[in-house]
Specification:
It contains five helices and five strands, in the order αβαβαβαββα. Helix content is about 60%, strand content about 15%. Strands 3-2-1-4-5 form a five-stranded mixed beta sheet, sandwiched between helices. With about 290 residues, the protein is of the alpha/beta class. The protein is elongated, with a radius of gyration of 29 Å.
Length: about 290
């Protein structure tokens, strides 16, 4: 390897380093935006839980099909799978796919995919995709919810679950499975948040049954939206870390290449000096 090739490699790796560093910064900004969206929706979801719990304690929950499907015609599960549209995000997709194959029977499940990588993975395994919202997932939460709700109410699945990477911190996320239909008889709420406590009795119009049905549907839709934002934050966090590692590796490679370039240049200078000394000695002898 000569000096010219080493210099070209240094230039190429430097260009890659600039790209990975830029991608790291972009991923960090996107991660913060997804975190902010998830936080902004949390007070609404907590209020919704409290209202549902208060109303549901005074009516018969058996009247709602959201707690138990009445006309079940298929014993399959409907899985809403969240993944990424692009790569270069570390083990983000690998972790969720490994979790999926471990806890879900793909041959006995139908899938709604959010993310091109997830759709490709399910297709390769021979799974059945009933809907794909990979192109514009952020604006398709209502459509995702309606598709899943229709499947459940028509009895084409016994349950609906979310599988996604739950964002915990900048350096940590974990694959999560969450059943959204049928709803549990008791919806747990965070009672330690005193600022969101609701006191007093409600005057409900037109009826508690109609209001509860609408609140429950809104609650399920918000769970899907929260999972989407959490998955987005985890994806950008994983990409930020992956790009930081790539940038650090590029810097180390550049350092080693510079050492090699200096070594080759020193060898070249040494050989040139030896040639000059040898030529001088020959001239002196003649």
């Amino acid at each position: 390897m000569n000096i010219r090739i080493v210099r070209k490699k240094i230039k190429s790796v430097s260009n890659v380093k600039k790209i990975t560093n830029a991608m790291q910064l972009v991923a960090a900004v996107k991660m913060k935006k997804s975190q902010q969206k998830a936080r902004e929706g949390e007070p609404y979801r907590l209020h919704l839980k409290k209202i549902i719990q208060k109303i549901s304690s005074k009516i018969d929950l058996n009247i709602s099909a959201l707690f138990k499907v009445k006309n079940l015609v298929s014993n399959r599960e409907l899985v809403i799978l969240f993944s990424s549209n692009k790569g270069l995000c570390g083990a983000f997709n690998f972790n969720i796919f490994r979790f999926l194959t471990k806890y879900v029977n793909i041959s006995e499940s139908d899938f709604i995919t959010i993310g091109r990588k997830g759709a490709e993975f399910i297709s390769k395994l021979g799974g059945k995709i009933v809907a794909d919202f990979s192109k514009n997932s952020s604006n398709s939460v209502s459509a995702i919810f309606q598709t899943a709700l229709n499947f459940y109410l028509e009895g084409r699945c016994k349950s609906v679950k979310l599988i996604y990477n739950k964002f915990i911190s900048t350096f940590h996320y974990e694959p999560t499975e969450e059943v959204i239909l049928p709803l549990p008889r008791k919806i747990d709420i965070d009672l330690d948040i005193k600022a969101l406590s609701l006191k007093g009795e409600y005057v409900i119009e037109p009826s508690a049954n109609i209001l509860l049905e609408r609140l429950l549907k809104s609650f399920i839709e918000e769970k899907i939206r929260g999972a989407l934002y959490s998955s987005d934050a985890a994806e950008h966090s994983s990409r930020m870390i992956a790009m930081k590692n790539a940038t650090d590796n590029a810097q180390e490679l550049i350092y080693n290449l510079i050492l090699q370039r200096n070594k080759l240049r020193q060898e070249k200078i040494t050989y040139e000096l030896l040639d000059m000394i040898t030529a001088k000695e020959l001239v002196e002898k003649n």
